[in-house]
Amino acid sequence: DLAPHTEVPKLDIARVVPRYKHSRGRLLLIDLEGTVWKRDLSREGLAMMEEDYLTAGNKPVAGEGGREGGEDPCAPRVEVPEEVLRVLEKLVADPRNEVWLLSGLRVRGVLERIAERVPRVGI
Hints:
The chain is an alpha+beta fold. The protein is built from four helices and two strands. The two termini are about 30 Å apart.
């Protein structure tokens, strides 16, 4: 039973890394927003994400479109950073890893775009 003000202990890297390297299988549950992706949670940022979802069906993921420089006006304005996608691709490339994203996104479509780009990630 955790008291309301109990702190989460600091991760002991010296203990975790050897176990990670030598494990046969790993379940990685990754919190998307605020952990690997710092997205715009302002009213305007959420409205942009909602509009992106409502205005197009199959939209590109980061690095495949945008609204700047005369590019496709239907491309999403809110994109998952390329760096986040590369990290997820690297994690799923190891067959011992099962990677799932945890997300509080109320807007559908973003996780699906990630799964299109990184097919082995669970959403």
